[in-house]
């Protein structure tokens, strides 16, 4: 999956001599001078040793696999990490302003004119929200470091660098698949409640695309747009999340509860 490495010296020199054109294009898309500097800093600080190809290329951000080689390679295995790099040169962020605008946490910084500032805010929001989830014991990538629009986090995947599938792509096996789907549904309702009650947050983009699955466990990701209770649209976003989740699990054959019942369970 991570065939093409962004080699260390490439990061340093701002060159990418990799022969694979599509990978080069992907890498170059976000790796401007400033981003390369930040990555170098992270390498120097020992957060990662090597940055690999993109796990995901999205509209607003790319996610890369990375590896940290241990000081003592005889005793310790390499540690996989994930780096989410928000794109700074886009206008999509205009659309996202409504998530930030209503939040007291970010009032001082929301500057409509400045794209780069917006992107930084966005990454900061994801970092802080991940910290909250992690502190509340909700399975998610542990946030490790943030610098401007670059976020280093725990890699959710195996030791070889294969990321866990999104819930959408999860293939459950066994003769109790219906039971497993039911349990995952119940697990997710518990997570949503905890997110609301303990973290004071509504995910606001919750669906089978922003949940990873491994070994009967759901992992919540992509919380940059998550909002606090006091956001003027938070309950609207919560209803949307509830609907998405219900739609998905119904398609898996789960006998789901009514949206209103779930809403009360989460908020009560
Ligand atoms: P986007 O804003 O592009 O939707 P996401 O945070 O949802 O960004 O990440 C995009 C994809 O990258 C996810 O669907 C998942 O497959 C992968 N991914 C994100 N974070 C991690 C992680 N910590 N570990 C492994 N894979 C990840
Ligand atoms: Mn996503």
Descriptive overview:
- This protein is of the alpha+beta class and 268 residues long.
- The chain has two domains: 147 residues, Phosphorylase Kinase, domain 1, CATH 3.30.200; 101 residues, Transferase(Phosphotransferase), domain 1.
- The protein is built from eight helices and nine strands.
- The strands form three sheets. Strands 1-2-3-5-4 form a five-stranded antiparallel beta sheet, with helices on both faces. It has a two-stranded antiparallel sheet with strand order 6-9.
- A hairpin with a 2-residue loop joins β7 and β8.
- It is globular.
- The N terminus is likely disordered.
Assign an overall shape.
Answer: globular
Bound ligands, each once? adenosine-5'-diphosphate, manganese (II) ion
CATH superfamily of the largest domain: Phosphorylase Kinase, domain 1
- Overall mean confidence score, pLDDT: 87
Instruction: Work out the helicity level.
Output: 25-40%
Provide the gyration radius in Å.
19 Å
Contiguous uncertain segments of 5+ residues:
1-19, 24-30
Work out the count of structural domains: 2
The major sheet is characterized as: 5 strands, antiparallel
The CATH architecture of the largest domain can be given as: 2-Layer Sandwich
Main CATH class of the largest domain: Alpha Beta
In whole angstroms, how far apart are the ends? 44 Å
Q: Could you state the order of secondary-structure elements as H and E?
A: HHHEEEHHEEHEEEEHH
Number of helices: 8
| Structural class label | alpha+beta
Got a strand count?
9
CATH topology of the largest domain: Phosphorylase Kinase, domain 1
């Amino acid at each position: 999956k991570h065939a093409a490495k962004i080699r260390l010296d490439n990061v340093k020199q701002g060159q990418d001599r990799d022969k694979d054109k599509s990978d080069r294009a992907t890498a170059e898309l976000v790796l401007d001078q400033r981003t390369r500097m930040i990555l170098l800093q992270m390498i120097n600080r020992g957060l990662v040793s090597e940055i690999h190809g993109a796990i995901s290329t999205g509209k607003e951000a790319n996610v890369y696999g990375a590896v940290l080689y241990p000081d003592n390679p005889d005793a310790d295995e390499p540690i996989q990490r994930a780096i989410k790099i928000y794109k700074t040169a886009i206008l999509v962020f205009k659309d996202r302003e409504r998530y930030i605008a209503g939040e007291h946490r970010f009032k001082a910084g929301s500057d409509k004119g400045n794209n780069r500032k917006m992107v930084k805010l966005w990454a900061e929001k994801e970092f802080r929200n991940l910290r909250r989830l992690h502190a509340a014991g909700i399975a998610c990538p542990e946030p490790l470091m943030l610098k401007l629009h670059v976020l280093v986090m725990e890699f959710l995947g195996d030791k070889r660098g294969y990321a866990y599938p999104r819930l959408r792509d999860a293939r459950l096996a066994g003769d109790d698949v219906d039971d497993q789907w039911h349990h995952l549904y119940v697990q997710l309702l518990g997570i949503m409640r905890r997110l609301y009650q303990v973290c004071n947050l509504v995910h606001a983009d919750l669906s089978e695309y922003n949940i990873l699955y491994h070994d009967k466990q759901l992992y919540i990701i992509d919380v940059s747009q998550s909002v606090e209770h006091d956001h003027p649209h938070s309950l609207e976003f919560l209803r949307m999340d509830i609907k998405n989740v219900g739609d998905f699990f119904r398609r898996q054959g789960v006998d789901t509860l009514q949206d209103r019942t779930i809403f009360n369970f989460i908020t009560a």
